[in-house]
Design a protein that fits this description.
The protein has 145 residues and is an alpha+beta fold. It has two domains: 42 residues, no CATH class; 97 residues, Immunoglobulin-like (Sandwich). Helices cover 23% and strands 40% of the residues. The protein contains two helices and nine strands; from the N terminus they run H-H-E-E-E-E-E-E-E-E-E. Strands 2, 3, 4, 6 and 7 form a five-stranded antiparallel β-sheet that branches. Strand 8 and strand 9 form a beta hairpin. Helix 1 packs across helix 2. The chain starts with a helix and ends with a strand.
Length: 145
């Protein structure tokens, strides 16, 4: 039985490190958070892993259409933007350099795009960063080092 548990844990860590998605119960996810963080940090080498972004409040009625830049270059999503509702969390899963300047932008088709907020990553810590308060929106992104 112990061998099976060890093999299960190793498989889960390998799946995360390889960028594969897996689903589990909330209790299993909570128990696997530190393993996932360690695997993510290893995947990025000396860089910072951007985990998920959550819309705490949004700037428009219904949904914000957002994208993320690092040092002036769009890094997420692969499409034009991601449409997010208040309370929604979306995986980012990107590696960026320590001390990178992140900007969260809200797309406006009729007006210039809006800057929701800007943060500078602290390269040596794992923490949540907050983008605030362009258009009244507030977002949180997790960074793992």
């Amino acid at each position: 039985m112990r061998t099976w548990r060890k093999l299960s844990k190793l498989t889960a860590v390998a799946a995360v490190a390889g960028g594969l998605a897996f689903t589990a119960t909330p209790a299993a996810i909570a128990a696997g958070d530190s393993a996932r963080e360690k695997a993510a940090a290893l995947t990025c080498g000396g860089n910072v892993f951007l985990d998920g972004i959550r819309a705490l409040t949004i700037s428009e009625n219904g949904r914000d259409e957002v994208y993320l830049e690092a040092d002036g270059v769009k890094i997420w999503p692969s499409g034009r933007y991601v449409s997010m509702a208040a309370g929604q969390r979306v995986e980012v899963d990107k590696c960026v350099r320590p001390q990178a300047a992140l900007r969260l932008i809200e797309v406006d088709d009729l007006d210039p795009n809006d800057l929701i907020g800007r943060v500078i990553l602290e390269g040596d810590v794992t923490k949540d960063y907050y983008f605030c308060c362009g258009g009244g929106a507030r977002y949180r992104i997790g960074a793992v080092r």
